[in-house]
Amino acid sequence: MHGPASPGWLLVALCAVTGSYCLLRMRSSVEAQRRTAGGEALMGFGMAAMAVPAAVAAPPRWAWLAYAAVFGATAVRALWATRTSPHHVHHLVGAGAMVYMAGAMAAASPGHHAHGGSGVPLLTGVLLLYFTGYVLRSGRRLLPISAMSATPGAPDGTGTVGWADRPELSQACRLTMGIAMLAMLVAL
């Protein structure tokens, strides 16, 4: 992505740590959480790879096209999953945003002549609005509420909740990736 190197490296680290935690969440005893965590891990690592500052390592155009293909396939999978769960609509929008950013970076890569105007493109603006709302909603869900302070029993009936099944940790992971997506869209 374009922009200064220091914030770029912080974004890379944030996305890589989030992707790593999502990989660890795949050890959950709940199948739906494992499946969701796998998709979120892919997004975290993909965002980390795309956020590497261009001044350090400017990927060739084919790399951006490969990102677009991977996240295009992810978007198709999320589209298929929306028929059973509305939660996957967010994964569809996120994967679509990654395809859009990869395409924009491919168009801006050296050796490719892009003809663009000034200002923020409409799709970028719409995605910025969506992810701003998503971040605000996710952050609100993390606020402590006395009714939610009691920890429910684990899905396996033991009464304890493992670290991979903690809803506040998975929500913090989603919040982090939403903020990172906003930062990447702004840098676009």
Highlighted features:
188 residues, mainly alpha, globular, 0% strand
Q: How many beta-strand runs?
A: 0
Q: How many domain modules? A: 1
Find the structural class using helix and strand composition.
mainly alpha
Helicity, as a percent range: 55-70%
Largest sheet: none
Q: Write the H/E string, N to C.
A: HHHHHH
Task: Please state the CA-atom Rg, rounded to the nearest Å.
Answer: 18 Å
Strand content: under 5%
Assembly status: single chain
Distance between the termini: 7 Å
Q: Which spans of ≥5 residues are poorly predicted at pLDDT below 50?
A: 146-151
Q: Give the overall shape, derived from the CA principal axes.
A: globular
Mean pLDDT value: 81
Count of DSSP helices? Answer: 6
Description:
Helix 2 (31-50) runs parallel beside helix 4 (88-108) and helix 3 packs antiparallel against helix 4. The protein has one domain (5-148, 161-187). The longest helix is centred in the N-terminal third of the chain and has 21 residues, at 5-25. With 188 residues, it is mostly helical. The protein has helices at residues 5-25, 31-50, 61-81, 88-108, 122-142, 167-187. It is built from six helices and no strands.
